[in-house]
Design a protein that fits this description.
Layout lengths: L1 H17 L1 H4 L13 E2 L12 E3 L5 E3 L9 E5 L7 H16 L8 E5 L7 H15 L8 E4 L3 H11 L1 E2 L1 E3 L4 E3 L3 E5 L5 E6 L5 H11 L7 H9 E4 L4 E4 L1 H36 L18
Parallel strand pairs: 4-5, 5-6
Antiparallel strand pairs: 1-7, 2-3, 4-10, 8-9, 10-11, 12-13
Helix pairs in contact: 3-6
Length: 291
């Protein structure tokens, strides 16, 4: 039963990739999964005053991790047999592709939605993923939090994360995805599934930071790609390509006509100077200063 539920959760993650609003409404889903998914809360704020415990057992507020950098938030319980591990593995892979750095450019919070998870379990999970990320400095800015049910509920409701506990298997059915938040704690982007392309994560973090991180190339990419909230990913901005193509066409045509006019002026000078004129319109053997 445990593996069956976990496999079903993976199916939900795949459905979310195709469109979050449709996943929970799909009549083909098992009953337990119909209340599982993400309800998007773009531009809404999370409760920064809610308290959790970090991997060292210290009581912290969510607001302790906000203020200066964007934050990547994952909801994952630490004894999950399959899907949470895939989400976190996909996150590590995607973050390593961004060429941005945890601590320098952004922070990461992994919050358990199982109130029975302990700081000791959080510390063990953190150790594994800091090792996978391959940067020990990231330990200072990637935190694994545990908390009480009321705290979990407040955060889950704020980001629209819906999950269901299955008492028969003692596991949770939940969706696959991550949330990018602004330094002020507002929801900026959702990314679904268990794979997060580095380009998408980078663009999401650049936008969430209000362009305080990233490069000039990122600004060009943000012009060429737009965020699709239904799919939870970036896609080609067709109209922007059309506009850019139109501008480029006008520039090329302008240069073409400028060159034509220049060539025509030069041809007229040559004709006016007669058959003995050189390419500059001067008559061979004649200098005005010697006349």
């Amino acid at each position: 039963m445990t593996h069956g539920l976990a496999a079903a959760c993976v199916v939900v993650g795949a459905l979310l990739t195709a469109g979050a609003p449709r996943a929970s409404a799909d009549p083909a889903l098992p009953p337990i999964l119909k209340n599982v998914g993400f309800d998007q809360r773009l531009n809404e704020s999370i409760p920064l005053d809610v308290t959790f415990r970090d991997e060292e057992g210290h009581e912290v507020k969510l607001g302790d991790y906000f203020g200066t950098q964007p934050v990547v938030l994952t909801m994952a319980y630490f004894r999950c047999p399959m899907l949470c591990t895939q989400v976190l593995n996909g996150l590590v892979e995607g973050l390593r592709e961004t060429e941005l750095t945890i601590g320098k450019d952004f922070r990461v919070l992994t919050v358990s939605f199982d109130p029975s998870d302990s700081p000791k379990m959080a510390a063990a999970k953190k150790k594994n993923y800091i090792r996978a990320y391959a940067d020990r400095q990231a330990a200072a800015d990637w935190h694994f939090l545990t908390g009480s049910q009321p705290s979990i509920d407040r955060l889950a409701q704020a980001i629209g994360f819906r999950y269901v506990y299955d008492s028969a298997s003692d596991q949770y059915a939940h969706a696959a995805g991550i949330v990018v938040l602004t330094p002020a704690g507002k929801i900026s982007r959702y990314f679904y599934d268990v794979h997060y392309p580095g380009r998408d994560l980078r663009l999401g973090l650049v936008e969430a930071s209000q362009n305080r991180i990233g490069s000039a190339i990122d600004q060009v990419l943000l012009f060429c790609f737009h965020y699709d909230p239904t799919a939870g990913r970036y896609g080609a901005a067709v109209m922007n390509f059309v506009r850019a193509g139109g501008v480029l066409t006008m520039i090329v045509l302008g240069l073409f006509f400028a060159l034509l006019r220049r060539g025509e002026r030069q041809r007229r000078r040559l004709v006016a100077a007669g058959p003995n004129a050189n390419s500059n319109g001067e008559v061979a053997g004649w200098r005005g200063s010697d006349a």
